[in-house]
Design a protein that fits this description.
Blueprint (H helix, E strand, L loop, with lengths): L1 H5 L4 E3 L4 H6 L2 E3 L5 H37 L3 H20 L10
Parallel strand pairs: 1-2
Length: 103
């Protein structure tokens, strides 16, 4: 458990001690070592989605806020800003259909 707490990434098996499970950053439910590779793959995909969401939200808001402040009426501007949030949520929900390439 102390080694897991000190490590950059601590991975514990669910069959381990309670202290090791609490100290681990990732807890593997099944005792399958391939789940480590899947966890790393999914974390990379998650970071990719986070970067996509940040890019599109920044791009959309940097273009939309000046337009909303001067050109458009407030109701249309509120709907446009809501669309930004909805698009980020929908992009995040697309992760539900992700299939791991590791068997």
């Amino acid at each position: 458990a102390p080694a897991l707490a000190q490590a950059d990434l601590g991975i514990a098996m669910s069959s381990g001690t309670d202290i090791a499970i609490e100290a681990g950053d990732i807890v593997l439910i099944k005792n399958n070592i391939m789940d480590v590779a899947r966890a790393i793959e999914i974390s990379g995909y998650t970071l990719k989605k986070i970067r996509q969401n940040l890019f599109w939200a920044f791009f959309y808001n940097s273009a939309g806020i000046p337009i909303a402040a001067g050109i458009l009426n407030p109701m249309f501007s509120a709907a446009a800003m809501s669309f930004s949030s909805v698009s980020v949520v929908m992009n995040s929900l697309s992760m539900k259909f992700y299939k791991s390439k590791i068997n």
